[in-house]
Write a structure and sequence with these properties.
single chain, 215 residues
C-alpha cells in the first residue's frame, strides 16, 4: 500500500493505472468522492490543475484517504506543470498524487524531483511476436483491426504499441523479397504516420481509427 505522497507511474498501462487507483480507495470504483481523476484530451491545462487545488481544499469524505490521479501526465503543458509544483510539495495528510506517464523524462525536472518513481516492467513480447501481430492486423477487416488495437492498448500505452509495430514492420521489410516490398513499405509508412499522429497530440482512438482503415 502506498503512503501519502506524490508518485510518478512510468509505463503503467491504462488498465494497470486504474487498478492501482482502485486499490487505494475503500471501494474499488473510479467514481469515489475521495478521488479526482484528471484525464487529457489534447493537453492537460492549468485550469485542470486548479481543480486539484480546489479538490484538496475540501474535507475528505468520511475522513478517508484522498487520491489525485493524472492520466497521461506527459500531456501537461509547462504552465500546468509549474502550477502543480506547489501541490506536490505539500499535498497534505492522507493524500496520494499519482501521475501516469510513458516517459518521465518528458516532465520537468522539478516535477520528477518531487515524486517517487514507480516503473512498471511487464514481460516484453519478442519482435517475432510483434511481427505475427502485425500480420494478423494486416489480414483483418478494419473492424477487427480496431478491436485488436484496442485490446493491445489495454496492456501498454498507445505510443509504445505503435513503436513496437513500427519495429516489426521495419524488420519484415528488411527480410522481404522484392515482390513484397511495395506492400510492406506501405504498411510500415502507415504505422509511422499513426505514430506521428500521436506525437501531434491526436487522441489514440483517432489514430487507431485511421490505422484500422488504412493498414
Amino acid at each position: 500500500m502506498l503512503k501519502s505522497g506524490s508518485y510518478l507511474l512510468e509505463n503503467y498501462s491504462p488498465e494497470k493505472f486504474r487498478q492501482t487507483i482502485k486499490r487505494l480507495l475503500p471501494q474499488p470504483r473510479l467514481s469515489h468522492p475521495n478521488l479526482l481523476l484528471i484525464e487529457a484530451e489534447n493537453a492537460i491545462k492549468i485550469s485542470q490543475i486548479r481543480e486539484i487545488r480546489h479538490f484538496l481544499a475540501l474535507k475528505s469524505w468520511q475522513g478517508g484517504r484522498r487520491v489525485v490521479a493524472i492520466a497521461e501526465g506527459n500531456k501537461m503543458t509547462v504552465p500546468a506543470q509549474n502550477a502543480l509544483l506547489k501541490i506536490l510539495e505539500e499535498p497534505g495528510p492522507q493524500t496520494i498524487i499519482l501521475i501516469q506517464t510513458d516517459n518521465c523524462q518528458q516532465l520537468l525536472p522539478t516535477i520528477r524531483s518531487r515524486c517517487q518513481l514507480l516503473r512498471q516492467t511487464p514481460r516484453q513480447q519478442s519482435l517475432g511476436e510483434w511481427e505475427n501481430f502485425l500480420r494478423q492486423l494486416a489480414s483483418a477487416s478494419p473492424k477487427d483491426r480496431l478491436r485488436l488495437l484496442n485490446q493491445a492498448q489495454k496492456k501498454m500505452a498507445a505510443a509504445a504499441l505503435l513503436d513496437r509495430l513500427l519495429q516489426a514492420g521495419q524488420q519484415r521489410l528488411y527480410r522481404a523479397p522484392a515482390a513484397r516490398m511495395p506492400l510492406l513499405q506501405k504498411q510500415t509508412k502507415t504505422i509511422l504516420i499513426g505514430r506521428q499522429m500521436l506525437m501531434a497530440n491526436l487522441k489514440p482512438q483517432d489514430a487507431f481509427d485511421w490505422l484500422a482503415m488504412n493498414l
